[in-house]
């Protein structure tokens, strides 16, 4: 987790930042003057906890979107590091190249081998450019599918961690078959004979998320979003301006709570107060426990029954009327 002085804060987190600045100032004063300020510092630390709790329980939909994009938030590689052992990353789609926006490989989770695949953003500008800000090209989705098929070959469960603002929309991506690659993944994931668990750990936008988002169990972490379009782009289409992004976020019903109410996900994974960026270890432990519990529920089901249930699960999503 970033040190206090290196942490970044969103606008609505300013009360927390102010308190942390007071703690830092009091700590420095205590060191320089030898005056015991431990009681004052302890009181301020309690207030930080209370403030984080208050902010967490009063977030708007747009603030949750902002939190899902928090620059200090843990990404796929961090969760893999904290949850698993013996991770062996695998590369390339055996066709075009290795897409750095999607990572994956075999790892040991609670003593069992799994294939874990996810979208990876960067922690600084250079790494974000390397990872294309978590926006995969067609070769990224084809790499993901190759790894899923490899897991199926060795009868190992598949876990996907979703965190993308969308599939890369560039001309070259479309030329190489972006839509086909995502559609192929959806089709093939429906038919995988091994258990599949998908988790939205940050942003879950559009086909970019669906390309690795079909599973027996689909979960969302508490401060994430999952919908067909980002609030900004939705605002641009409907109102010809980004100024209505907060209204769009509310109308899209994109939060984990709403997704659970609609039956589009199977559960919500709690985060530390204030968001996963405040305690990587606790966030990873919550995710790990849910993955272990989810795998325990589905691992012994007959593969064909599991496939049929997966198809039925996604086929009944949505609301419609037949006239």
Outline the structure in words.
This protein has 323 residues and is of the alpha/beta class. It has two domains: 9-58; 65-315, 2-enoyl-CoA Hydratase, Chain A, domain 1, CATH 3.90.226. The protein has 14 helices and eight strands. α1 runs antiparallel to α2, α4 (76-83) packs across α13 (280-298) and α6 runs parallel beside α8 (178-190). The N and C termini lie far apart (55 Å). The mean pLDDT is 94.
Brief characterization of the structure:
This protein is 48% helix and 15% strand. The protein is α/β, with parallel strands linked by helices and 323 residues long.
Number of helices: 14
Q: Sum up the overall morphology in one term.
A: globular
Mean pLDDT: 94
The number of domains is 2
Poorly predicted ranges (pLDDT <50, ≥5 residues)?
none
- CATH architecture group name of the largest domain: Alpha-Beta Complex
Estimated radius of gyration = 21 Å
For the report, how would you describe the main beta sheet?
8 strands, mixed
Distance between the termini: 55 Å
CATH homologous superfamily designation of the largest domain: 2-enoyl-CoA Hydratase, Chain A, domain 1
Strand-residue proportion: 15-25%
**CATH class designation of the largest domain:** Alpha Beta
